[in-house]
Specification:
410 residues, alpha/beta, globular
Length: 410
Amino acid sequence: MKDINKPVRLHKNLAVAVINCLDSIFNQGLQADKVIAKMLKSDKRWGKRDRGFIAENTYEIIRWKRLYGELAGVKEPFSNTSLWRLLSVRLVLQGIPLPAWDEVRGTPARRIKGKYDGLQQHRAIVCSITDWLDKLGVANFGETQWKRELDALNTQASVVLRVNRLQTNPKMLQNELVAEGIQTVLHRTYPDALILQERANVFETDAFKRGLFEVQDASSQLVASFTEVSPGMQVIDACAGAGGKSLHLAALMENKGQLTALDIYPHKLHELKRRAKRAGVHNITTRHIQSTKVIKKLHGRADRVLIDAPCTGLGVLRRNPDAKWKIDADFLERVKQTQKHIIHSYATMVKPGGKLVYATCSILKEENQNQVEGFLQSEIGKQFTLEKEQVVNPAKSGFDGFYMARMIRS
C-alpha cells in the first residue's frame, strides 16, 4: 500500500483535487479514469509529480475504500468531511505527517494504526472488498489462493507497452524511448512487451505519436497470439471496442488478409479507426452492430473469430479498482447472460475448420470455464471442439487476470 512517488510536502491544492475526484466518483457515480483524466488536464501548472500525487491517491483511496472507511469511521454517501477523513487515513498509513489544515485536524493517527492492526483477521475488510465478492472468491479459489489473488489485485499495475511490429521491434523502440527519457525492460515471456521502470506519460512521446507502440497489459497481449492468426486470413474481432486487440491481430497478420472489427458502440469503432491510422494498420474494416443482420451476413465466413466478451473485469482490478464496488449478484447474472448470448450468436461466423476464441478479463469460473462448457453442450456448440484453455491469474503472472479458450469448428 506504499507509493513510490511521495511528495516531500503536501500541497493543499493537490489534496483538494483528490477530494473533488473522489466526490465525482463516489457520490456522482462517474467513471474513475475519466474523472481523473479530466482533473489532470484542468491545471497546466501541475508537473509530473503533482499529477502523480492526484492520480495515485485517488486510485488508492478507491481501491481501499472499505478499509479506509472502516478506519475513518465513515460510510457512504460520503460528505466532504468524510472524504477528507479517507485521505487522512491514507496519509497516516503511508507514514506521511498530516499538515496543519482544518480539514485534517484532529485525525487520531495512533488510533487508526491500532485499529488497522486489529482488523488483520477480517479478510474482506483488510483486502477492501464486499462480503459478497469475498465469498464468491473463496468459492472459486479456496481461502489461501483467494488471499493471494486479492493481494495481487490490490497492487498498482505496471505500465506495459505493446511494440507495434508493423513499425519497429522491441530493442529499437527501447532505444527510442531512452532518448526521450523513458526507461523500460524487456520481458522474456511476453515478446512484444516493454515494461516501464517508472510511470510516465508515454502518450506525449514522439514514439507514441508515430504509432510505434500501444499501452496494453502483458496478459492482454496474450490474446491475439492465442487466436493463432496468420497473414491472409479472414478474421473477426467480434467485441472490438476501441481496438487494442484488433491492432495486435493486424500486426500478427502483417497487414495481410481481412480483419473485421465489430462492436455495438460506434464511438469506440471511430476511436479504433483513429488508432489504426496512427499504427499504420490498413487491413481493418469496422462494422457497427445495429441488428442481427450484421452477424448473419458473416455466417460461416471467418477463419478466426475472437470474442473478447464483456465481463465483470475482476481480473483487471489493479488498474480499474472502482469495478469491484459495482459487482454484485445481479450484475454478475446480467454479464453471464450477455456472454451466453454473444458466444452462441457469434459462433456462427466461424467457417468449418475455423477457430473460435472466447476470452475475458475475469478470473471467475462462472464467466469462463462454465460459459465454455455450457456453450459446447448447446446445439451450435456441439459443432465445436475445445482445443486449448489458458488461465492467467494475477498472483502467478504479476499482470492482469485473463481467461482464454480456443475451439475448432468441425
